[in-house]
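Session log. Operator J.P. requested a structure for one protein chain; no other inputs attached. Running the standard single-chain path with token output.
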Amino acid sequence: MQKIKNSFKSVRFKLFFTMCIVIAVIVLCLVAINNIVLESFYLYSKTKTVRDLYKKINTYYNVNQNSDNIDEELRRIAYNNNFDIFIETDDNIIIFSTNRDLYSTIDTITNAKNYKDSNSVIYSDNNIKISRVNDKYNNLNYILLSGRLDNGYNLYISIPAVPIEESVQISNQALILIGIIILLISAFIASYISKKFTAPIVELNEITNKMAKLDFTKKYRIADTDDEINELGKNINTMSDKLERTIKQLRDNNSELEKDIEEKSKIDEMRKQFISDVSHELKTPIALIQGYAEGLIENVNTDDESRKFYAEVILDESNKMDTLVKQLLELMKLEYGKREFNNANFDIVELINEVIRKCRVMIEEKNIKIKFEAKKPVLVFADEFYIEQVVTNYFTNAIKHAIDVNGNKEIEIRIEEEKEKIRVSVFNTGENIAEENIQKIWRRFFKEDTSRNRAEGGTGIGLALVKAIMTNYENDYGVINKENGVEFYFELNKEK
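Structure written below.
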């Protein structure tokens, strides 16, 4: 039902209905004009015809043609036009007649009062008079011209006239019938034309509806015709493209604004986190520095060796604080995407050998066997400075946690080449990491062994740095518990 109501409201139905109404009104106007004008036009036409005939007959007699020729010509004219022609002299001598009964009829018309009352003069001048005669007794209706020729003859021309009312009625019936036929034909034509004209409007309506929903995928199909609708379609396509670009630009700007807000929020969060971490982690070294500094001031120990020990503790804790703050700042920048990487091709084998060389003293102190058998260069694409931090963190952690297992105390470093990646793994013999701590060790300040003293323990930020660096590169990293130890690994992109 709603669909039917909507169809009545459509432009196509309104155009179709309007065209049908216009055609019906035209037919009715023709009927009305027929009723008003037809009688007058009919009389005017007949009057002109008999006047022209009078002039022609007058000309025939003026040029002194042979009477037989004139009679023959008059009979032909009368026959062709269904006229009755009667010519007489003033002495009532009949010169020519196509109907002998016309004489008595003319005499009756000119003399009888009842006929005079029923006559109406249509036209008259010095020579002729044209009247419309309505013979009620004989039920006849005709137009009569009575006139005088230049040679003195009296001329009478009678033209039968169908009652004008009957002619109008017949004409109206014909007009109505033709109007109905035209209306039916026009209805089909109007339906086709309305569909043809409204189809592009419907298409434009669908496009604008989609545009209102910010869907700019549908475009108007430009036709070869150069009309207003085609021009409107071009303009709507242009407007659609401009709106799409403008909205895209607004979305991009909005996205940039959201990113700026998010960046600002990240910076605030980073600042809060940094303050929280620093204030938490610096409590112990500050307390130690404060305690030993007060001891020096109050001369708790008078010997030089004790004072030197106090000073060394203060210096050591200060260095640890400095290292902690620098690592925290670096970690914050990495986690919040504020650090740019200077990526380049470099040899990972050479980097690992350099890290091992730097840690040689620690290795010898703990009597650890190092296994690293890579000889040929292996080129990777990354920032060498940060990858050195990753390798150093893995390697120093392995040194700290390496213990003798079945008479074997070693660290093994392996490099494996995959399709698009290089996998570096660092294994050390020792105790496995508790399963519940596998994910926690990547958090900042997490230390699995809470009993470890400060001399051996680190800052608790190393593995968090590894996670941040690998996350920025979108490369895999992790830890695997082995039968006799623990293996840490990370992946790098191959050389470019």
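Operator note: The chain has three domains: 2-168, 282-337, 340-494.
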